[in-house]
């Protein structure tokens, strides 16, 4: 490692993670680090000569400021847990796949695949970058699963293991459609090739060859008819069984009629049939479907509370403790909850002082202090010291879990209905009418041509053009949306997005940025020296408000002479280099209660009141702009689980018409949405936490917002990355354009069809024209949809 | 004439071979992760320890 990296001039960036170093003391090998954790990772890598990690990308690591509790992975020693996590085990090797959400660049890939150099026990490690998973094979005679997890944690890649992973088998990816597409493509191309002699008018003398070509085509069309088109058969049949005629029904009819007529023509030697058209349609339609169904493999739209909960927690017995998996937690068990750990079941605090962050569960922005004897609900995260909790409800009966077990979460959304289905039904009837009219006409004129005319009409006018334009437009719009970090679960969501007229926002974590707080100080000016002392004192406490002040105050003293005492629920007081400084509530500092609108912390130096810190939720920067933009076109509502401290600000932002609801329980949120829907409104809900999950499910379109798409998001129809929130309006506009583009492409292809029909009803459609018309119309639809969607996204100034 | 038939059989079997290769590649998961192989091949072998 001879490379000397020039540090940026003013601020020291951590060599490992790139964050600015507040403390300049943490160094190793002339490199600066922001915290001991980052330094440790560097030292491990340096020791094994693996600093290429830092050469591939600058500052590739993740901040290690939050240290992982040493015995966090103790539960992996439990054989039953291990059994349910690993995928394969023999007498020597164990295979396991870990989800490592920290993975983000080529350095990560490199380091993880060199894992065997860090420990003898690791045999191999293969990374799947898209899924952020590492498939690791290790020798269980040399290392345990726990040691492996700790090794990964040691280099900054803590495996994410949740309750949901227990006993879960890997979902088998459905590749059937791809195989079907492959087969259809193969047959289509070859049939086209074999048909050329016929199109170009093969010599009559070559009759033998002609027959050979026809039979070859027949044979090649069989896999398409029986295998590739199976996609449409099952879909049509499923819809039919539910007494619903979907778009696939007329398509199946068209495929069958085409096949039957072609078979008849070839077997009787009267013609060459339309095998090329039939396989071509199937191929293009399957391609459209595959494009539309391309899912975002790295995202998960179906997460429920189980993937948020840990696998196991520590249970305290009379004189010892053990790890217990969540389903095995029984009433009256005593659980030890560590700092930053989730409370898995409702319980009563029996020891320790709890400070519980419910922001994810209820939407309250500030942690709640709970004393011994008080009830804590599952889903809250403990911040601060360890606590002991006596379980009063098992996991499955807990408050949060019950919400999921409600009926709402059980019945899956019913039939997807799309305007395309309605249109296709209408279209089908028209085609039938034309076919029968043509058949009847020719029956009187020339009986032999009537059968010919009917089948030709059905073949040429199948609604595949509509289906094609729909699937290709949807596919491309999904692609554009995901390029803008807005991921839809399914193509049908596009249409639902186009219909909405009301947008409901959650506050905490959606309009405001997660845990960030805006600190406002008012009072007498603070001297720089005092400011450092305040920072030093505030840094001693784990209370979030105290942390906020520490961040606000900035630089701490280097070697302070410090003596302090923390008064739970009140404040902190201490001597810092000879000054008595106190931070805390109004009662604690001034002795009197004050009427403060929001969370306020008072500061006194040497017993004299200096000023106070006000804490405000930090709204995402783009929020005011976005809300102004949306206001004019949509009803806007805010439904928050937090108190109404921000009512005035939001009212100002959203105007008088807006509906604001505060102190809403998860069920209340759901009810608010229900009542809006009963008024006939189409509602889009944007939220982030478990407390929004009911509302997200109830909404016509539920959108989960996240700062990082690998984080936990509740079940939803769509996931949007916070950075794309400003573009929300444009994204909705694009969805609204979807329908217009489908219609435009459809009308153009109808023109083709009418040309075809003109010949078909006369019973004079030559195979040549049909053969040219079919792929031409398909390809033109393809080009039109792609062109129009890209054009509209450009005009909306999207990426 | 028989030459054409022979050629056809040859061409279709070659195409069939490719179809088989395609199905095999999908089946063995070669399209599961489209990102890492392109990065992985750029890594040098282990740089010498200093």
TrEMBL record, chain A:
The chain crosses the membrane at residues 178-197, 209-228, 249-267, 273-291, 426-444, 450-469, 741-761, 767-788. InterPro entries: ATPase-cat-bd, ATPase_P-typ_cyto_dom_N, ATPase_P-typ_P_site, ATPase_P-typ_TM_dom_sf, ATPase_P-typ_transduc_dom_A_sf, ATPase_P-type_domA, HAD-like_sf, HAD_sf. It is found in: Cell membrane. The keyword Transcription does not apply. One of its GO terms (molecular function) is copper ion binding. Residues 94-160 form the HMA domain. This is Cu+-exporting ATPase. It comes from Sediminibacterium goheungense.
Automatic annotation (TrEMBL), chain B:
InterPro entries: Cyt_oxidase_maturation_cbb3. It comes from Sediminibacterium goheungense. This is Cbb3-type cytochrome oxidase maturation protein. It holds the Pfam family FixS. The lineage of its organism: Bacteria, Pseudomonadati, Bacteroidota, Chitinophagia, Chitinophagales.
